[in-house]
From TrEMBL:
Name this protein carries in UniProt: NOL11 protein
Annotated ranges, domain Nucleolar protein 11 N-terminal: 1-285
Gene Ontology cellular component annotations, sorted alphabetically: nucleolus
The organism of origin for this protein: Cephalopterus ornatus
Primary subcellular site in the record, as a coarse category: nucleus
A Gene Ontology BP annotation from the UniProt entry: maturation of SSU-rRNA
Residues of the Nucleolar protein 11 C-terminal domain: 363-671
GO molecular function: RNA binding
Subcellular location: Nucleus, Nucleolus
Xref: Pfam families: Nol11_C, NOL11_N
Keywords carried by this UniProt record: Activator, Nucleus, rRNA processing, Transcription, Transcription regulation
Length: 673
């Protein structure tokens, strides 16, 4: 997310508006959206055009769709009616009852209880707030009124369900959090029962008040509140805070200087919030709360006021993960460096066997190289830890930090072993590829490009430039994985080209020689268009790894424009060679492991031409290459155009085959005009 890799994008038509958040159906792996209040759309990840996706027009306006992992999607209408998606799709125009009158829904959530879905939503009318609990499959509905509060009103809601009771937490405008208990089954038949509330938390620390805008519940003892911290005589600062509701203490916080939208989401122990113009993800972990821990945290404060707030991005210069090992608090990891800071009292003596990974790495900071590697190998060989991925990232970070401080140190085999055997990503070890580039470790870079899903475009470009600029003599002495090229590259050990004999998909170099107006000098058959690879197998394998790396065109194109012209021509020659190779096969697929696909080849060709088209037109050697490419593409277009002409006849032939009685013998003559 930090590198903004779009995995899919779908758009509604001009004039249409998505009117509620899109959700995923966990059972069918489909997306569900509503536009213009009543139009339901359902599609899968591989679908490209949203306009061609499944469409159903409903009879009432939709407020929100809730998707439960085990209960399926639930549709909440603006009138308060609820339907499961299956029931709704059976008759999209079915009448939806109005449960509420002149009330606006302010919040809603869905839960599973005893294998039955439960929808809870809060409404507002003339300053009064109501809560509805509905079980759509059991046709059960209960309405409650929230106990009114003078001179303040609820700003945000969150809830959790346990033991047949919904615990509703309400963030009020008086900087307090109140708790409301709602039974799923009530004894009385009162039409409108008033729900009492109890004060759960005051959002104030030593005179500083948090003006909350959104809250989420983490567990029975912790809540997260997003808001603006207002200290006397100081400018308000937006913060994400974690509070211990059991002991009324501020657990930890993070300042958000770029501002937020005021919304906070929580899913699978991760916070999601907008920070500036980006979506930020912060992982957390709740542990059992205890009074001793809460008191210990208060004693740990060195200065009055808001000193109990933690700077999550600081660990005295060390970019290491330090997890909470005591049973008191909420551990959080920043999305950029995955840094945590333990706020344990420094007076407490920690036994070696209870060391956190961060503490172990700090102790090994100045250890000899052999001791460091042995300890890290033992750490990785242990049983699965609760946060194994972050731990591995910390180990790699410790190794790369040692490489920076000691230029002679580079544990190539150890790093390669970690990358090949562990599920890593670029964000977990952001300095690894930079160090590998500096050391010219092209094998490690190749493996990283193949395995890391989140490499920034700047790093992808740096690898591409390095692969194109290194000499052939150096590459021949370099270990590279050749699995992606060994099955199709036309290079023998004696460096003589091997010509291609079979040409399919409508292209033949000799037949189409005069298809282009530009006159190109005739070359020997062994070096005709695309028949021999213009680069060596080692360089080709490295470039294939670049072709496999995910990227966003918007962010890659500015870097690609800085590629030297001669290197761009070499790269384009290789892409052209791959394009011809793919077109030789009926299925347009190259043999081998992790070989480039036709789409990857064409996408990179378009990118390279967009970035360097002016230079390509001016340089003589590039003009010749562009002419060949133009001739080949035109032949491909002509061939597929001819196929399109007989498409109707082929479909008719297929239809006749289905209609033919297989038990009778016949001879048919079909004339294709």
């Amino acid at each position: 997310i930090s590198d903004q890799k779009p995995l899919g994008c779908w758009s509604v038509k001009h004039g249409q508006v998505l009117t509620c958040p899109v959700v995923c159906n966990f059972e069918t792996h489909e997306y569900i959206a509503v536009h213009d209040d009543k139009v339901l759309r359902i599609w899968k990840n591989e679908d490209i055009n949203l306009d061609k996706a499944f469409k159903a027009t409903l009879s009432a306006d939709v407020h929100r769709i809730h998707s439960l992992p085990e209960g399926g999607p639930l549709v909440l209408f603006k009138g308060g009616g609820v339907r499961t998606l299956d029931v709704l799709l059976e008759a999209p125009q079915q009448e939806i009852e109005n449960v509420i009158s002149d009330e606006a829904i302010r919040w809603s959530e869905a839960f599973m209880e005893s294998q039955q879905p439960v929808v809870v939503f809060a409404t507002e009318k003339d300053g009064d707030f109501f809560v509805y609990v509905q079980k759509p499959k059991l046709d059960s509905l209960h309405k409650y009124r929230l106990e009114p509060q003078e001179s303040c009103k609820p700003l945000s809601f969150t809830a959790y369900l346990k033991n047949q009771t919904v615990t509703l937490l309400c963030l009020y405008s008086n900087d307090s959090v109140y708790q409301v208990l709602i039974p799923l089954e009530r004894d009385t038949e009162e039409e409108e029962q008033i729900l009492p509330k109890s004060l759960l938390l005051n959002l104030s620390v030593s005179g500083s008040v948090l003006k909350g805008t959104s809250l989420v519940v983490l567990d029975k003892d912790h809540v997260a509140v997003l808001g603006s911290l207002a200290a006397p005589g100081k400018e308000p600062k937006e913060c994400l805070t974690i509070w211990n509701t059991k002991f009324q203490t501020l657990q930890t916080s993070k300042e958000l200087p770029l501002g937020t939208s005021g919304q906070l989401w929580c899913y699978e122990e991760k916070f999601f919030l907008t920070h500036g113009k980006v979506l930020t993800v912060i992982m957390y972990k709740c542990e059992t709360s205890s009074l001793a821990a809460a008191v210990g945290k208060l004693k740990d404060s060195q200065t009055p006021g808001v000193s109990s707030f933690v700077n999550w991005d600081t660990l005295e210069g060390e970019e290491l993960v330090v997890s909470f090992q005591s049973q008191e608090s909420v551990a959080l990891k920043s999305e950029s460096r995955m840094n945590l800071r333990s706020r344990r009292s420094s007076v407490a003596k920690v036994q070696p066997e209870n060391f956190s990974i961060g503490q172990l790495l700090l102790n090994l900071k100045d250890a000899p190289t052999n001791v460091l590697e042995n300890e890290l190998k033992q750490l990785l060989s242990k049983a699965q830890t609760p946060d194994l991925q972050a731990a591995i990232g910390s180990v790699v970070t410790a190794l790369t930090n040692r490489c920076k401080t000691n230029p002679r140190y580079y544990p190539q085999s150890f790093l390669l072993q970690i990358v090949e055997t562990r599920d890593l990503s670029y964000s977990l070890c952001p300095d690894l590829m930079a160090v590998a580039l500096e050391k010219k470790d092209f094998y490690l870079l190749q493996i990283c490009l193949q395995r890391f899903p989140d490499i920034p475009e700047e790093m992808t470009y740096a690898c591409l430039k390095a692969f194109l600029s290194i000499s052939d003599a150096y590459l021949r002495m370099t270990e590279v994985d050749l699995d992606s090229v060994i099955c199709y590259i036309d290079v023998e050990f004696n460096s003589k080209e091997v010509k291609t004999e079979i040409v399919e998909n409508g292209f033949n170099a000799e037949l189409d020689q005069d298809a282009c107006d530009t006159k190109i000098p005739r070359q020997s058959h062994s070096k005709s268009d695309g028949e021999s690879c213009p680069i060596g197998p080692q360089r080709a394998a490295l470039l294939n790894a670049v072709l496999h790396s995910a990227y966003s065109e918007t962010f890659l194109l500015p870097h690609l424009k800085n590629l030297p012209a001669q290197q761009a021509i070499v790269f384009l020659r290789y892409l052209y060679y791959l394009y011809v190779k793919c077109s030789e096969k009926v299925n347009t697929t190259l043999p081998g492991v992790r070989s480039p696909t036709i789409n990857q080849i064409l996408d990179w060709m378009c990118l390279l031409l967009d970035a360097h088209f002016t230079v390509m037109v001016i340089l003589p050697e590039a003009r010749e290459l562009l002419s060949k490419l133009h001739k080949f593409v035109r032949a491909q277009v002509r061939f597929y155009s001819e196929l399109n002409k007989i498409e109707g006849s082929l479909r008719e032939l297929q239809r006749l085959n289905h209609l033919r009685d297989s038990q009778t013998y016949s001879i048919e003559v079909l004339e294709i005009i």
